[in-house]
Each structure stands twice: as structure tokens, then as C-alpha cells.
Amino acid sequence: MLFVGDDWAEDHHDVEVQDDQGRALRTARLPEGVDGMARFHELIATFLSEDADPSQVLVCIETDRGPWVRALVAAGYRVFGVNPKQAARHRELMSISGAKSDKADAHTLADMVRTRRHQLRQVAADSDVAEAVKVVARAHQTLIWERTRHTLRLRAALRDYFPAALQAFQPLTLTGADTLELLAKAPTPAAAARLTLAQISAALRRARRRDIPAKAAAIAQALRAEHLGQAEIVATAYAATVRATIAVLQTLNTQIKTLQGQVEQHFGQHPDVEVYLSQPGMGVIIGARVLAEFGDAPGRYHDARSRKNYAGTAPITRQSGKAKTVHARFVHNDRLVDALHMQAGAAILHDAGARAYYDELRAREIGHNAALRQLGNRLVGLLHGCLKSTTPYNPTTAWAHRYEHLAA
Questions:
Q1: For residues 120 and 110, what is the distance between their CA atoms, to the nearest angstrom?
Q2: Residue (of 241, 75, 94) closest to 155 by Cα position
Q3: ∠358-363-365 over CA atoms, to 5°?
Q4: Where is the Transposase IS116/IS110/IS902 C-terminal domain (predicted)?
């Protein structure tokens, strides 16, 4: 067997090839791209016979995605994507001097896959459809997070110079099309006070709001009331920054809606879409995010427990002597944990079994978030069973062992 450490950078890869005794057979710096991959294959071929199995080559690299990784997997090599923190800890075991270089990192990765491959997760090849879902689902979620950040910036700016706007638009949302339209048209207190009922009503109508006359009157009254503020020149400066933030938010709203259509389109092409959509609390967007983060490579998760561990919903136990504590996992996939938390929150509203399990946890004085996390852990196990048997979720079957009365 050959063990290869691949320390990647933006434009090159430092690789080291080791034998099963840990001897360095060859080191090289390869360029990124097709030429670098061809040279990688040539390097490996010098140590393998023509009829050798490519799976005898184990590659360790600090990423699990990208064209380079996909090319390695497609060639038949066994690729292990490791967290940079794991590599850093292994480097500390090998050397206490603190020295670091690209060549030394390649040596560390090769030694790591040679000695600890049983503790590493092998990169499994997801289908092209799953990869496409991952791309659009992550982009969609990233834009939503960006919109939240810009909304908080907008709220902070309004609080500093125009608190009346926050009070006026409280029944709406700062990211709503009508709110952004009115703020862009009148970003200062003086300009907002001059907005007419007709202008406010027109913006509400374009946003398809209900009870427009009452809402327009309330907004106008709040904008014209007396409030503490800033000097006119300071308010004008704030207004310029608010207009810029509003332009960003309007663009984000448009692109989020566009990407949502792409998520729905790609997710709908996956063969397991019906299984995902049958899960309690899981719609198209959450289902696409969960699929994107779990992947669909067969055999990646040996059992429900391994899927739960990857999801970060399974608790961890710390025991020393007589002391024993159970904690939530703090090292996890943030995108997946966020999606599963949202699923659990929706499941207790629409699924009797999920609600009963949640209520049982709350009756034991477990906090809301902790109860949702435990429910999410249970839902991950149900999802694993459904995917394994390609069977849609059945609430009676899922909760029969705990709540037999639900079937009645």
C-alpha cells in the first residue's frame, strides 16, 4: 500500500508518498489543475504495477470537496478528508518544536493516514445530483445569513438616528419589500414625516399586505410623532449608509428568491426526494439542506448512530472517576445542525409523535433547545432507517414503541 499526504494551496499541492514502514519514497510540488493531476498519477504509477488496484493508494488531504478531490476519488484512490485541527494535533505529536512548512505538512498527512486511518472518515463519492443540491442549498443559506447580518446593521443604524422607523415598521419586517421601499424613499425623519397615506398604501399594496388602510394610518402616525433624533447633517450622513444597506438587502431578497427556485428544481430531481419530504417538519428547503450535508453516497453511514454522530445531535459523555456529565457536541456541521433544529421545531407543530416525545422531555425539566436537540437526534435515526429501506416516514411505525395509543 502507498500512503500519500497532500498539502494543498490555491495554486499547488505538496505531496509525499510513504510506504507501509513510514519511509518517504518521493516528495513533489504539483500545480493545481489537469496538469497537476496527470503528474500525480504518473508519480503514483512509478510505485505500482500496471494491474495494481488503485484502492491500495490512500490519500490524506485537508478538504473533502473540490475538483481535485473528486478527481482523486474518480481515479479509485481511497481519499480521507481531515479537519485541519486534526492534522495540527497529529503534527504536535510528531514534533514539539512548532516548526511548520508545506513539505512538513505533507509528511504529517501521509503519516496520519498510515497510522490512524481507522479513525479517519473516507471521502465518499456523492451523486452529481446531490453535489448540485449542495451547491445551491449552501449558497441559498449563505445569502439568508448575509441578509440577517445586513438587517441587524440596518436596525442598529436606525436605532442611532431614526428610532421612529423601527416603531412604525414594527408590524412589518425590516427585510420586507414595502419597508425597504419606504425607507429608501424617505431615509430621514423629516422626509418620512412627509410621506402621504397614498404613498404608504401603495407600497403596502405592492407587498400584498392585508388591512392596508389601518396599517398605513398607523405607520404615518408613528412617523409623524415626536421622537429624539440627531442633527440634520448627521441624519443625512446616516441616511446615505442606510440607502446603501437597503440596496444590498433588496438585491439579496431577489437573489434568495431566485436561488430558492434552483434549490427546489435540483432537489426535486433526487431519487430520495419523497423519502425526505415525508419526514416530519421537513419541507423542500430544509430537506435539500439535510441532503446536501449528509450526502447520498451508499455506505457512508454504517448505522443510525454514525449518522447521528456526524449530525452533531448525539450527546457526548465525559467521565472521570465518580464524575459523569453529558454535553451537547460543540464541534459540528453548523449548516446541518441549523437545518435539523428547524426541522425539529416544525415537527412538534405538525406531528403527534414528535410532539409527544418533546412534551415528555419538557416534563423532565429539559430546556426547550435541549429538547429540540434530542428530538432532532431521534428524527435523524428515523431518516436513516427510511433512507436505508427507501420507505417514506410512517408516524404510527416510527413512534409505536413509545406511544401505542397514537395508533388508536
A1: 13
A2: 241
A3: 105
A4: 278-358
Write out the E strands in 62-195: 78-81
Q: How far apart are CA 97 and CA 261, in angstroms?
A: 52
Q: CB atoms < 10 A from the CB of 339, how many?
A: 26
Best CA proximity match to 361, nearest among 352, 371, 351 = 371
The predicted structure's pLDDT at residue 329: 64
Torsion over CA of 59, 62, 65 and 67, rounded to 10 degrees?
-70
Q: Kindly state whether residue 201 falls inside one of the protein's structural domains.
A: yes
Question: Which carries the bigger pLDDT value, residue 329 or residue 345?
Answer: 345
pLDDT over 70 (residue 224): yes
Rounded Cα distance, 20 and 1, in Å: 6
* In 278-364, alpha helices (H): 284-294, 304-311, 334-350, 352-363
Provide the residue range defining the domain that includes 40: 2-119
The structural domain count of the chain equals 3
Nearest-angstrom CA–CA distance, 28 and 40: 9
Which residue in the block uniquely carries the three cell numbers 443625512? 236
**Model pLDDT, residue 330:** 62
The pair phi, psi for residue 121, each rounded to 5°, is: -95, 125
Residue 406 has pLDDT above 60, yes or no: no
Whether 182 and 283 map to the same domain: the answer is no
Which of 226, 244, 265 terminates a domain? The answer is 265
pLDDT confidence bin for 179, thresholds 50/70/90? very high
Distance CA 341, CA 346 (A): 9
Residue 49 has a pLDDT of: 82
